[in-house]
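cron nightly-structures :: item 1 of 1
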Amino acid sequence: MTKLLDEEVIGQVKEAFQALDGKVQILFFDGEDCQYCADTRQLVEEVAALTDKIEVDAYHLSEHPETAEKFNVDKAPGLVIASENGSELVDHGIRYAGIPAGHEFSSLIQALLMVSTGKADLSEETTAFLSDLKEPIHLQVFVTPSCPYCPRAVFLAHSLAFASDKVEAEMIEASEFRDLSSQYRVSGVPDTSINHGAGRVVGAVPEEDLIAEIKKVLAS
């Protein structure tokens, strides 16, 4: 089997992974007629093989419906980045729908580091806002592997999810899920949908701009 990660990337990831602290679990979800599932599983398993801090558990959507429902996964390939607390898995609301390839590979590495270290790089204002959240927020960030700005938008959404159990954030590879992209009228990426279309931010906007749009959705 041909490796997906070349030696240069492996070296860069190993260097980044020196900062890993706590253990991380990647939950991989397969599905029927899934074009990129095999590659996605190989990708995360190659990443996990670079450290003893990361493990991969594989599930099939139809064979493990309870697990899929528990982690709110309904697309394949699907990924959940969770941490370990003893024998329990802690769900941080960090999701991937589609393969995190190309530029998006960097957001996967960033998410793994954030979950392992327990640190989300957010402003005090954003942290205070998230701590007061009473209503759930669902973020869907549409991306393509060739988009150099998309990882920034994905990591911001994932950081909000990590910092609040009221937020769930999902990267969606737009070309793999064309029907969903069409439903949300995605014409350029990154495109972040808030609460299933109640709000929207186009582009890799600053943290305060995304929070401002979330506040508008909550106010309406």
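cron nightly-structures :: done
DSSP finds eight helices and eight strands in the chain.
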